[in-house]
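It would be a great kindness if you could assist me with a short task in structural biology. The matter concerns a single protein, recorded as an amino acid sequence and a row of backbone structure tokens. Could you please explain, in whatever detail you think fit, how the structure tokens follow from the sequence? Thank you for your consideration; the sequence and its tokens are set out here:
___
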Amino acid sequence: LKLFAATVRTHLEESSIVARLGGEEFAAILPGVDRLGAVETGEAMRRAFAETGLSARYWVLDVTTQGATTH
């Protein structure tokens, strides 16, 4: 969890909120970010966490993203 938090923090604005939903699921609230920006941010976080090498040291992780937006 600490590695995940440190990794995603580098891709978020100070106003963003990330919360653990349960298990390995997280949600991010990105105020003022449009749909394309949210997709790009989610993909950047996914890619950065996948590149940490955590899965190679302990177990295989399938790192994916999903999104929903509102106006």
About this structure: The chain has a mean pLDDT of 79. The beta strands are 17-22, 25-29. The radius of gyration is 12 Å.
